[in-house]
Structure formats: C-alpha cells, structure tokens
Amino acid sequence: MLSGDIYLKSLNVFYGPVHAVKGIDLSIEEGKVTTILGANGAGKSSTLKAIVGGVNYTGSIVVGTVPIDGMPVHKRVENGIVLCPEGRGIFYTMTVKENLLAGAYTRKHAKLELAFEIFPVLKERINQIAGTLSGGEQQMLAIARAIMAEPKYLLLDEPSLGLAPVVIEKIAEVIREINKRGITIILVEQNTTLALSLAHKAYILENGRVAAEGKPDELMKSDVIRQKYLGGVRA
C-alpha cells in the first residue's frame, strides 16, 4: 500500500487537440482534505482522472517517494487510490449489496460493516435495487462503494451535484467522518462554500492552470480571488 503525500509535477492532460490540464504542480498532504475548485472545463475532473490512471497524461505523479506513472488503474486501486466519479456511476439495476461488493473487487475480504458504519441507511436498503434509491441515497451508495475498496486516498468528484441542501449537509458530515478515519481526500466541487468548509488546502484552476492556492481562510481574505473565482462568497 502506498503512503505519503501526493505530488503532481508538470501534469498535462490532452484530449486530442484539447489541452485540458496545462503543466500544473499540486501537493496533496496525507491525511488532509484538499479541494480543487474552478469553473466547468477548468481541468478539475481531468486532474482526478490522471491521479487514478483513467486518462493518459504527461508529467509525473509521485506518492510519497514512489512514482506511479505507468501503473494501471486496478493497481492504483489496490494501492489505495480510489475515485468516486461525477454522476455517481452506480449500477442501477443491481442491489445495494451487489453495488457494494463490486466496489470491493480488489480486496480479498469484503467489509460491508465499514460501509454500514458510515452509511447506516444503506444497511436498511441492502436488498433494494439501487435505481430506486433517492438521489441522496444514490450518492451515499457511490461513496460507500468507493469505501469498500479500502482507500487510503479517496478522490470525490462533485459529490453534492444535484442534491438538496439538507442532503448536502449530510454528505459534508460523511466526508468529515471519512477524513477522521485517516483517509486523505481530494475533493472537486462546484459548491465552493461546501468545499472550503471541509478543506485544509484549496487549489483554484482556470483554463487548465493553477490560478491560486492556499488555505481556505487565506483565499477568502483576498477580495480579488473571492470575486473572480469564488462568486463573491465570504468566510
């Protein structure tokens, strides 16, 4: 299992002629929550996909002292790097239990108890077809399925997307609980208020480049950054 901080060095992601991520450097501290903010098309999701090995990239990704470039997706998952994708990506015609067990395919012993500790509502729905769950419950299932892979680094892509405010607060509580268990979290979010309330460090991407970085409270103190990148949100 990999351990240590994650370092992205001169990371580039291309989709044909489109240069989505343009030579960025990021440092993800182990055991902390790091958020990546920015408008649609800024390169946030592409950055997560590069870390988990889901897209081709140039540059280097190092975990601790170990370069993981060339490591296939399933090996990264085995080493604790797990993505919970945007749009949930659950198996809608399968039961809650079947979805959870699918998340544990790289582990010899599936630990449903861990998922149920964090998401007790899923235990009540264990035999329910996933597509019949509410939107919030589906998002919880998506995160729980990722937890089944026993991540050391959990990458969350837009976990609050399309959810009601009361459900978003529940998701925030879950993210805090997961982080308290020692899991490093990389959070991509359009909901800047939510992201900054959870994060220890924030990066703001603009057109594939790092436009700003720092602790959330420091970024919020800058009128320019708050107005230009954070929609005028105040701490």
Description:
- With 235 residues, the chain is of the alpha/beta class.
- It has a single domain, classed as Rossmann fold (3-Layer(aba) Sandwich).
- Helices cover 35% and strands 26% of the residues.
- The chain has a six-stranded mixed beta sheet with strand order 6-7-8-3-9-10, with helices on both faces.
- β4 (58-63) and β5 form a beta hairpin.
- α3 (96-103) packs parallel to α6.
- The protein is globular and about 50 Å long.
- Keywords: Amino-acid transport, ATP-binding, Nucleotide-binding, Transport.
- InterPro entries: AAA+_ATPase (IPR003593), ABC_transporter-like_ATP-bd (IPR003439), ABC_transporter-like_CS (IPR017871), BCAA_Transport_ATP-bd_LivF (IPR052156), P-loop_NTPase (IPR027417).
- Residues 6-232 form the ABC transporter domain.
